[in-house]
Specification:
The complex is a heterodimer of chains A (275) and B (297). With 275 residues, chain A is α/β, with parallel strands linked by helices. Chain A has helices at 2-5, 47-55, 77-83, 100-107, 116-120, 127-144, 160-173, 190-206, 218-224, 242-247, 249-256, 261-274, and strands spanning 7-18, 21-32, 36-40, 62-67, 70-71, 85-88, 178-182, 210-214, 227-232, 235-240. Chain A folds into two domains: 1-84 and 177-275, P-loop containing nucleotide triphosphate hydrolases (Rossmann fold, 3-Layer(aba) Sandwich), CATH 3.40.50.300; 95-175, no CATH class. In chain A, the strands form two sheets. Chain A has a six-stranded mixed beta sheet with strand order 6-7-8-3-9-10, with helices on both faces. A four-stranded antiparallel beta sheet of chain A has the order 2-1-4-5. In chain A, β1 (7-18) and β2 (21-32) form a beta hairpin. Chain B has 297 residues and is mainly α. Chain B has a two-stranded antiparallel ribbon with strand order 1-2. Classes of the chains: A alpha/beta (275), B mainly alpha (297). The A-B interface holds A 55, 57, 76-78, 81-82, 87, 89, 93, 95-98, 102, 105-107, 109-110, 112, 114-116, 119-120, 122, 127, 131, 170, 174 and B 156, 159-160, 163-169, 171-172, 175-176, 178-187, 193.
Chain lengths: 275, 297
């Protein structure tokens, strides 16, 4: 029982089908409060689909996702953001024409209380006071991720590495309980990757954020993850400590692209159940 | 050269142009945040003018109360139109949505003729003093109010988009709906708000124009006039809408002047904006402030 109270997010038998394509098949796992949980797997394994199921972009064909023991079924993408699920995207998704500061302020949207009317009467309605408090929080995040020097620049003008960092800052600004990072280090050079890995560890240890990360760089994954889940063709083929997972025969085969009897058996089991 | 007339017409141009600018802003607001080209914008304006007039004449309410009631009515009206007519069309091809707004515009047009009649009706006298003397020039109070209101609306728009969280949410949604949503912004609310604001502000413009001239079906023609303004400024730029509105207002009055003094063709006032529209589309298809679609391959 003690163990369960530590669980932040539970995925129970998640399946996702697009017509005949099985993007995810009966994937179950728990994510504990305060851990760094990585999802790895070859291209097309269903990693991003998994994140989309958590964030509400996709609705699983069957199965349920629970946050703090409460089912997320029926909650829209924006409701879930309000419940404390933050995310970054695989392809950069900043508001290019808006300043870095405004981008991060959008992340605080659901935390802000001022409404339409006192937004119009900015100085008298308390909206200004709220913005000052909010701005301080945002400045803390900016300090934390060391993007002070670009805070007023349009986000679209920044270098790739910086944009990734701003996107992370925006997700952090949501004050999420759990933060989903979709390939935070893709396309970065070694130095940028090391920086990013450090920020992720700091977020986890200093701010106590639970992190779910998709990443292809095995070195980083092994170094910073508490636990790793491996997906292949929408199936969970391993889940455990990073070193264990790397020793797993199925994982090695999946990455080398070899035929794996284990997968075929699973598929045959499925076929029997279906018929 | 009749300098007095020219000056008078230019002033007229700026006053009318600012109003075009206000309506153009409403148009751009809807286009930017919901990707709908609203051909019924002129009818929104006319409806506001009729409803306010109705409150003033039928119930003999004081102007400001009638005005505020009209604002409330238009906000609800905008939200209802968005929910009932445009929400089911999300994801449909743009041409279908355009056809629906055109259809809706003729529907509203007929409904209003049926309810409010076809003849022009003037607003009751609202200002005690009808003409104010400013530095030797006699200016109609209604015109002064028109300028004051237009500028006030523009400042409010600016503050709203720059400082309020809903303004920020609307800008974010205009840029990318999916990302905005995953940051906790409700797209439904943003859409409803865009339509509500657009309907309310159009109605303000309608009431002002109604007070200056009179309320009649012809008012909805402003909705069509706003197209050149929007095209000049750029479909997706709110500032562009204002600048475009003033440019069109001034140019149509200039055309009137040139025509009245020299050419004597007649009706240049109505036609000139559309010549401008064609020229702008040829040389600057995205308008002065619009963003070109860039495809990176």
């Amino acid at each position: 029982m003690d163990k369960n109270t530590n669980v932040l997010l539970q995925a129970q038998d998640i399946s996702l089908r697009f017509g005949g394509v099985h993007a995810l098949s009966n994937v179950s796992y728990d994510i504990k409060k305060g851990e760094i949980f990585s999802i790895i797997g070859p291209n097309g394994a269903g990693k991003t689909s998994m994140l989309n199921c958590i964030s509400g972009r996709y609705t699983p064909t069957s199965g349920e996702i629970l946050l703090n023991g409460k089912s997320l079924k029926g909650y829209s993408v924006n409701d879930r953001a309000g419940l404390g699920i933050g995310r970054t995207f695989q392809n950069l998704a900043l508001f290019g024409h808006m300043s870095v500061l405004d981008n991060i302020m959008v992340g605080r949207h659901h935390q802000l209380k001022n409404n339409f009317m006192n937004g119009m009467f900015y100085w008298v309605g308390g909206a200004q006071k709220e913005e000052i408090i909010e701005r301080r929080k945002v400045e803390d995040i900016i300090d934390f991720l060391e993007i002070q020097h670009v805070r007023n620049k349009p986000a679209g003008e920044l270098s790739y590495g910086l944009r990734k960092r701003v996107e992370l800052a925006r997700a952090v600004a949501q004050s999420p309980q759990i933060i989903l990072l979709d390939e935070p280090m893709a396309g970065m050079n070694l130095e940028e990757k090391e920086d990013m890995a450090r920020y992720i560890i700091d977020l986890n240890q200093e701010l106590g954020m639970t992190i779910v990360m998709i990443e292809h760089d095995m070195g980083v994954v092994i170094d910073i993850s508490d636990r790793v889940m491996v997906l292949d063709f929408g199936r969970q083929i391993a889940l455990g400590l990073p070193e264990e997972v790397m020793q797993n025969e199925h994982v090695k085969k999946a990455y080398l692209g070899e035929e794996d009897d284990y997968i075929r058996e699973l598929e045959e089991d499925d076929a029997e159940v279906m018929s | 050269m009749n300098w007095d007339l020219l000056f008078q017409l230019l002033i007229n141009g700026v006053i009318v142009g600012l109003l075009y600018g206000v309506v153009a802003m409403c148009f751009v607001l809807i286009y930017k945040s919901t990707q709908v080209v609203n051909f019924a914008q002129g009818e929104f304006l006319l409806l506001g003018a009729w409803v306010c007039l109705y409150f003033l004449v039928e119930y003999e309410l004081p102007f400001w109360i009638g005005f505020l009631l009209t604002m409330g009515f238009m906000a609800v009206f905008g939200i209802v139109v968005q929910m009932l007519i445009l929400r089911p069309l999300i994801g449909e091809p743009i041409i279908s949505i355009i056809m629906v707004t055109i259809g809706f515009s003729s529907f509203m047009q007929s409904l209003m003729s049926w309810i409010f009649g076809n003849s022009a009706v003037s607003y009751p006298k609202i200002f005690e003093v009808e003409v104010v003397n400013i530095g030797g020039l006699n200016v109609e109070t209604a015109y002064l109010m028109s300028i004051a209101m237009s500028v006030a609306i523009m400042i409010i728009f600016f503050l709203f988009f720059r400082y309020s969280r809903f303004g920020l949410a609307m800008r974010a949604t205009a840029y990318n709906q999916q990302i905005a949503q995953s940051l906790g912004i409700s797209i439904k609310h943003v859409f409803m708000m865009a339509w509500a604001i657009s309907a309310v502000v159009s109605a303000v413009a309608g009431i002002i124009i109604g007070m200056v001239s009179a309320v009649s079906t012809a008012l909805s023609f402003i909705g069509i006039k706003v197209f050149p303004a929007v095209i000049v400024g750029g479909m997706d730029s709110i500032v562009g809408g204002v600048v475009g509105g003033v440019i069109i207002g001034v140019l149509e009055n200039l055309a009137e002047f040139v025509d009245g003094q020299y050419l004597h063709i007649g009706n240049m006032y109505q036609i000139a904006p559309f010549y401008i529209l064609i020229v702008i589309l040829m040389i600057k298809p995205y308008g002065l402030f619009g963003t070109p679609d860039i495809e990176r391959v």
